[in-house]
Write a structure and sequence with these properties.
single chain, mainly beta, Jelly Rolls, 2% helix, elongated
Length: 385
């Protein structure tokens, strides 16, 4: 991840991070440490409002009784969940996290700047605090993932204060999905807090090992005293041309004609940065997960199958169809759930063209983008589809 290059041109501090070969292709990668987003580059009036939450699709109400006589079962054969960390499942001090960091690695330029910083975990989440050593001097500290091949990135981000009592100083706190090399390219969902208030920002950056070379503010909420300090953020990107960002269930940005410049498996940073020296401020994070895709696939459908529905229960006997897709010539149905909060708790139901139900899961299953399910003939049965 890399934040916007400061107007004065701050040099990048390079940090060597150990990358697990079981998750990414590189065993060790030189990754540039983050730089701040100059607050004066972001319009305080914003570029758009948050809008209306994406409603859960309602494609009809159907029955969800079990099918005891069905010859088919619907079974998961591949998970789309690449990494999941609630960040609320343990209590650890900074020393304990440094000794046993687990999946995350911790770093930043705060030590080099002789800036105060701290981090810890408890049942409220992961907390990272930082304080500028002097007003106007940026300092930051972060938790960073190993390189992770994925398309959807999610976390709940909390920034500590609505304002900071200092002119020309800023506090930022966000999630960054960055090219996992020293050549910096990234997309970011972050808060931006000043004496005026707080706003939320979506941006993309390209750069090299020395910093950002191009910066684009893609979307920003107005900076106000009433802006929420906690946001549920989802970033969906292929790293090359496509980016969608969803805040609190509201799509705030989408573009499939970008030049994002990510050439390597990405890493994800959770990080606060500030050039305000008056107080150590701690950002918080929870419910982090990434998925390999935004679609659920149901394969090996029998020849009579025409469509597959995802049905969220609304009662003990009925459910709402929230996604539906035809079965293609290969026997596969591909269901898009990128606009639906994950995990989606739903039945998978398979129908003929005349609406006869052929197969269903026994109960609702937890669905993530990238999950693959197969419709299989039950053991001991020799019926044709």
């Amino acid at each position: 991840m890399k934040k916007f290059m400061s107007i004065l041109g701050i040099l990048t501090v390079l940090v060597v991070l150990s990358i697990s070969t079981t998750i990414g292709p590189a065993s060790a990668t030189m990754i540039s440490a983050p730089l701040p987003i100059p607050g004066n580059l972001v319009p305080q009036a914003g570029t758009g409002s948050l809008g209306i939450p994406l409603p859960l699709p309602n494609l009809g109400i159907v029955s969800i009784p079990s099918l005891p006589l069905s010859p088919y079962s619907v079974d998961q054969v591949q998970t789309g969940l690449v990494v999941s960390d609630s960040l609320t499942n343990e209590t650890k001090t900074q020393q304990q996290l440094q000794t046993n960091p687990g999946y995350w690695r911790y770093g930043g330029d705060a030590p080099a700047e002789k800036a105060p910083y701290t981090f810890w975990k408890d049942i409220q989440g992961l907390h990272i605090g930082v304080q500028s050593p002097a007003n106007g001097t940026w300092a930051g500290y972060y938790a960073v993932t190993q390189d992770t091949k994925a398309m959807l990135f999610h976390s709940v981000i909390t920034t500590p204060d609505q304002t900071i009592p200092s002119k020309s100083n800023w506090y930022e706190n966000g999630m960054y999905v960055q090219n996992g090399t020293a050549n910096v390219s990234y997309v970011v969902c972050t808060s931006n807090t000043s004496i005026v208030g707080t706003q939320w920002v979506v941006a993309s950056v390209q750069g090299n090992a020395f910093g950002a070379t191009s910066e684009n503010v893609l979307w920003a909420s107005p900076m106000t005293l009433t802006e929420p300090t906690t946001r549920d953020c989802t970033i969906i990107t292929n790293g090359t041309n496509y980016l969608k960002v969803i805040l609190d269930g509201v799509q705030v940005y989408e573009n499939n004609n970008l030049n994002l410049g990510m050439t390597h498996t990405p890493v994800t940073f959770l990080e606060p940065q500030t050039n305000y020296a008056g107080q150590l401020l701690s950002g918080s994070y929870k419910n982090f997960f990434v998925t390999s895709d935004v679609n659920v696939k149901v394969t090996n459908n029998p020849s009579l199958a025409a469509r597959v529905d995802l049905v969220e229960p609304t009662s003990s006997s009925t459910g709402q169809v929230v996604a539906s897709a035809p079965v293609d010539s290969s026997g596969t149905a591909t269901l898009d759930i990128e606009n639906i909060p994950m995990p989606l708790q739903a039945y998978i139901q398979v129908y003929t063209s005349s609406g006869i139900e052929l197969a269903t899961t026994k109960s609702p299953v937890s669905l993530y983008g990238g999950d693959v399910y197969s419709v299989d003939l039950k053991s001991g049965l020799n019926l044709l589809g």
